[in-house]
User: Fold this.
Amino acid sequence: MLLPAARGATAWGAWTYLVPHQVSVPSLIGQRVEDARATLVDAGFTVKMGPGEYSLRQEAGTVLHISPPPGTSLGKGATVTIIPSLGPQPVEVLKISDVTLEAARRTLTEAGFKVGGQIERYSDTVAAGRVIGTKPASAAMAPERSEIALIVSKGPPPVPVPAVVGKAIDAATAALQDLHFVVKVEGKFSATIARDEVITQDPKAGSELQPGETVTLVVSLGPKSFPMPNLVGMSVNAAKARAAELGLQVTALAIPGGTGQTVATQIPTAGSTVKYGTTITIYYA
Assistant:
């Protein structure tokens, strides 16, 4: 007859050596790989690491799959394989330059990226509002579905506006157009500033504008009223040119029987007070 102690030892030996110890594989998807490994080892499994796989569902360094799957009942010491996630697959960033925002967004989306924010920069070569490039730059590798920022042109960098007050309008216009500014001219009568001389400019000298922006010049029309010049003896063309310089309109009439192009008389006469824009008459023969 077995004593109670002997019977207990026999039962323990039978449980240890004859009854298989089964453990259920835990669910570890999404856990950090090192934490999952520790959990499996503590449960009595042998852990094997499988090759990593790219995934949009699980971040890099976490458990993507385990084999056998969670819930499987295994004996202690059985092998469980962890498949770690490598995170999103790297994708090459395509070259995007000098295109519209709409086209750039479409290209990035079709390539598997998300469109991130916008970075504005000046550019001498890409028009304002169009895309200069991306960040990360083209040819770089970025995770699939990661955000790519668009670098958008603000147009050319601003440059100082030159001082043109006091210059003749032709010289002032040339100086501004050389810097690719648009010139707008407004006239103003002045009894003290010579005709066609710049009185004021807007914006002022030293202000910074981008090429393509407008500089407004106020130019002297000379006095509104002035003595009528003597045009007699000039050719018709010379008389017309002189009148135009003073802002006068000209009607030219040939004297009957005349065959020449020389001004013989004029109305108003020389020395008479005339106003800017007045129409004068010259008679030539």
